[in-house]
Amino acid sequence: MEDTVLVVNCGSSSLKLALFNNQHRKLLSALAERLGQNDAFAHIDGQEGTIPLDAGAGHDQALDTLVTAFRDLGLMTTAPSAIGHRVVHGGETFHEAVLIDGDVLKAIESCAGLAPLHNPVNLSGIRATLAQFPGVPQTAVFDTAFHQTLPRRAFLYALPEAWYRDWGVRRYGFHGTSHAFMAAETARLLGKTPATTSVISAHLGNGCSITAIRDGISVDTSMGLTPLEGLVMGTRSGDVDPGLFDFLSGKGFAADEVHRILNQESGLLGLSGQTNDMRSLCELADHGHEPSQTAIDVFCFRLARYIGAMMASLSHLDALVFTGGIGENSARIRAETINHLKLMGFELSPDLNNHHGEFSDGRIESPDSRFPVLVIPTNEELVIAREASRLAGSVAPA
């Protein structure tokens, strides 16, 4: 049986697993959802039906159930040779992926105040796999690590300096594994090296962020101290006037309630009053639902405005790249966004934009466009698997 690498991605109520072989080809993936609820269940891609979980099942039971299913399918007869975990926030402590030990666990926990909805559940997944696979090298891959190259002018807020010095209040950025993959893959498709390639990478899904990558490194990004800052997202507001908190306190809103609404009831959902799913919004807009069209308009305009802002951090631009569920699949969103950027010289080919999946290089710009525009499927799991393999190889056999 060949060596395998297990990739673990824990959400607040979900657990995603992916199993790769030693050539980094995905063998299997699975998802457990509604963890902590009475109707928790799991599903393995390519398999019929769902796997029921106990009422209130947590990440540890979901992991045990899915690992057992992987073994029953004959793809995991031995322990994996390495395990990689997605960890959302590494603060300023982690500039790259690291092997997990006791000190790393403590440091991840110390960043929980910066990502209270994410780091605690990431730790749950790590502890569950440590119990399930003792002795297997495990790696933490941080969403924030790729952005640790941001210059001070890009990561500092115009706030009292002591807030940064004492509490770490600064812009960190997220979706780093996706943006790092975009930088490398764009360079490959353009026949360049990452160190000579400058890209604006737009990761658009339920969470959205955009990053300016100059010569292979992140130099500006839209998300900040938390994943709430920046673009309009599925349920997150993106940028708002901080004075909103004071205004709403006068209306009787508590700070934690405003925080919940900005994270869970705003964005596309808040604007449309219907859904955070872009496909559904487009269908509703086509049937004359004005709030859905407004949500699309705001989303595209804010995205275009951020694309323009990212140009300030670059000396040249090799490509604008779209990725993520919306970025990869919505020709409409790409077209409406680029329509705001004609002054900068961006122009799409309608045919290529609508049929980019039929072309291996992902190019969708017209011959008259000043800059290349690409659509590239992201692969964060592959990045994590590669990092886990690399670091596990540095561990001497016992």
Automatic annotation (TrEMBL):
Main subcellular location of this protein, as a coarse class: cytoplasm
UniProt binding sites for ATP: K16, H203, L204, G205, N206, G207, D277, M278, R279, G325, I326, G327, E328, N329
EC number: 2.7.2.1
Alphabetic keyword roster: ATP-binding, Cytoplasm, Kinase, Magnesium, Metal-binding, Nucleotide-binding, Transferase
Positions of the record's site feature: Transition state stabilizer: H175, R236
Assembly with partners or alone: Homodimer.
Protein name as it appears in the record: Acetate kinase
Species of origin: Marinobacter manganoxydans MnI7-9
